[in-house]
Amino acid sequence: MLTLILFREELLSAFGSFTSFQLVLVFALCLGILLLGFPSSRLGYVSFDRITQAGLIWLVGPVGSAVFNGLASLVFPFYIRKRTGQNRREALFRAMHNVGMIIFVIMAGGWAFSMSGGAYPVRSLEPGILLPVAATILAMQLANGFFVRVRYALTHARVAEPVDWFANTLEPAAALIGLLTVVIAVNTDQVTTLSYLFVLLALMFTVKWLSDSRQRLEEKVRERTAHIAAQNERLERAQARQQELVSALDRLSREDALTGLFNRRHIDDFLKQEKGRVDRYGGTLSVALLDLDHFKQINDQHSHQVGDEVLQEAARILQESARESDVIARYGGEEFLLVLSNTDLSGAQAVVERIRRAIAESPWEKIQAGVRLTVSGGVAELEVGGSLDKLLSLADQRLYEAKQAGRNRIIAA
Ligand SMILES: Nc1nc2c(ncn2[C@@H]2O[C@H](COP(=O)(O)OP(=O)(O)OP(=O)(O)O)[C@@H](O)[C@H]2O)c(=O)[nH]1
């Protein structure tokens, strides 16, 4: 408004010879070019608005250019308000900001044009206008950059791209198209000018369409990527859970439910593994088979329940009295197998003797009055080149001998 009042004379002289159709056409062109812009992830909104900004400087001078481009910039944010999700206040703020910037940039361009000897309208592309045209474009770029920087400084925002080659190529290129448009408009009849404008707008529409399609495609790719990432995360969580379940199942499948000791399956595997180690690297390996004495009587005289408790307590004593490196399993009903790695016969005998004593001396009465328990055992050491079957049957044979010899004893030879 202020520009309109202050520069009334200039405006009248600039547009005095224009028909109202031409005035409407110029405004439609200014607004149309803004509407044919497209969103860019790096620059926000990209449009070829330099065509009309610079073009109108060269056609009617900076004041006329500022009025038409300013009006278009004022209307434009309200046009795209719905798409950008802005409310009326934000759109108004954006409009004021855009108008301010555009007037500033156009005035700078116009000033540089006349200071470097340019006179409007530019009628032809003769070499003499090269300098004023370059000065206009440069001044507009500098004014634009300055304005953006001041705004960023005032709003404490960070400049994303201080020197953007894309913007600095696109805008001067658009200004040159503006120059061509002016020369065509000045030198050709209305039909030719309109045909040219039609082709120009069609080209811009194509660029916008391509860019919008790319934007939509990128959006789709982003959505899909996020979807896949979420699915992957779910899958990884499910896999981790599955792994936990597999580990828990594996543990359960190797454990005896009543006593919590390893079961026969586990100790058989472990024994094979230990034998492999001895065969390969040498060393000693001993086993002990332990069997609770007269256990049937506990079941018969008391109850199966008491028998279970005795088994659990015996398992606890076994684990407590053995060394940490010894592996113990419930091998049968009331039979236990100990695998003693890196232990020779006498060492194994000492460990198992300690267990025998601990069981014999344990206060079994606390489970049930009248309960007493002893254990018999056979110990054997793996011979060089000997088999596991032979080792276990030797331990079993010695266990039998211990039973025969009166029980509550360990036989190792
Ligand atoms: N309570 C209970 N008893 C079991 C379990 N497994 C095996 N038994 C019992 O253990 C007893 C083993 O008896 P026998 O093999 O005759 O041996 P024993 O009575 O210990 O006599 P010796 O081994 O000769 O000293 C049987 O009565 C089985 O029923 C169990 O899980 N719980």
Automatic annotation (TrEMBL):
Gene3D superfamilies: 3.30.70.270. It comes from the Bacteria. Keywords: Coiled coil, Membrane, Transmembrane, Transmembrane helix. It catalyses: 2 GTP = 3',3'-c-di-GMP + 2 diphosphate. It is an enzyme of class 2 (transferase). The chain crosses the membrane at residues 12-36, 56-80, 92-113, 129-148, 169-187, 193-210. SMART domains: GGDEF. Residues 283-413 form the GGDEF domain. Pfam families: GGDEF. Residues 214-255 form a coiled coil. Its EC number is 2.7.7.65. This is diguanylate cyclase. It comes from Natronospira proteinivora.
